[in-house]
Amino acid sequence: QQQVKQSPQSLIVQKGGISIINCAYENTAFDYFPWYQQFPGKGPALLIAIRPDVSEKKEGRFTISFNKSAKQFSLHIMDSQPGDSATYFCAASINYQLIWGAGTKLIIKP
Amino acid sequence: DADVTQTPRNRITKTGKRIMLECSQTKGHDRMYWYRQDPGLGLRLIYYSFDVKDINKGEISDGYSVSRQAQAKFSLSLESAIPNQTALYFCATSDPGSSGANVLTFGAGSRLTVL
Hints:
The structure holds 2 protein chains of 2 kinds. Chain A is mainly β. Chain A has strands at residues 4-7, 10-14, 19-25, 33-38, 45-50, 56-59, 62-67, 72-77, 86-94, 97-100, 104-109. Chain B has strands at residues 4-7, 10-13, 19-25, 31-38, 42-51, 54-57, 65-70, 73-78, 87-94, 104-106, 110-114. The radius of gyration of chain B is 14 Å and the shape is globular. The chains are: A mainly beta, B mainly beta.
């Protein structure tokens, strides 16, 4: 019940396309859903986050869509750029604890 | 300087050796964490500390120990390293602040190889 399932494991998108990464959870007590971005040789860094009382949050080209009834949330990257190539992690939080998805390696082809 | 500094960045050691990974932070955060990253498994919590006198086990603490020497310093030790502890290790800090969101700031990682 504490798992966060992330898909796909890897994704290749053409420059200018839309990248979509999906996550699903079981525990309805989770109250905070962040996405972290990790470049090679670096630690993950917070990209965007959402709380379950909101269905969508947009920051620039990055959007989180949140479906509370389906217990799913997704990251959409519009107009994907080569600089977006990285590993993306979704997570779900309750109190202090973050439960992480397994990560998605995104490659944007020029 | 980085907000969260990990040393060493890379280490190769042999089975049975004692290894210490060090973490220091300038964020002024009370909460510090040690994570392990393996391909396809995401990030798994080893230990966490909410202040100098508070140490807690995470989901994969077996074979590891930690020391919180000061608010700014949190070390991870492998008393007797084994090959399946070969992984990328991350230190992180957080401060929920007024928003209550537990935003983590990560170090650059320490890559450990146990032969």
